């Protein structure tokens, strides 16, 4: 999964249960596992290092903000995928009966930055957004 053409980012986030995080990120999302301990697990999320830290007191449902008429979780993370990767992930999540915060759809249709997007939460309530652009050059379009 590692893409060396861009610098990888690092993100650490709290989880309630490491076994559930391992099943979600490693199993459902297919993120290879790196180092781990009894307090944290490294995952390779499309070439980026994310670290699930056992910190139940730090997990909480995020506030939402309106974007394109939808209530988007303010605190979220994810990856911009190719359209084919995004479609395959959306189908895998639907087949696994993942409950979406925002169902997969096309946002800003016909406008600058047109993108496919979906939001869902991990077992600890961390919101994730995966998106794909019709034209990746529109990633930062105004």
UniProtKB/TrEMBL annotation:
InterPro entries: Glyas_Bleomycin-R_OHBP_Dase, Glyas_Fos-R_dOase_dom, VOC_core. GO terms for molecular function: dioxygenase activity. Keywords: Dioxygenase, Oxidoreductase. SUPFAM superfamilies: Glyoxalase/Bleomycin resistance protein/Dihydroxybiphenyl dioxygenase (SSF54593). PROSITE patterns: VOC (PS51819). It comes from the Bacteria. Pfam families: Glyoxalase (PF00903). Residues 7-133 form the VOC domain. This is Glyoxalase/Bleomycin resistance /Dioxygenase superfamily protein. The lineage of its organism: Bacteria, Pseudomonadati, Pseudomonadota, Betaproteobacteria, Burkholderiales.
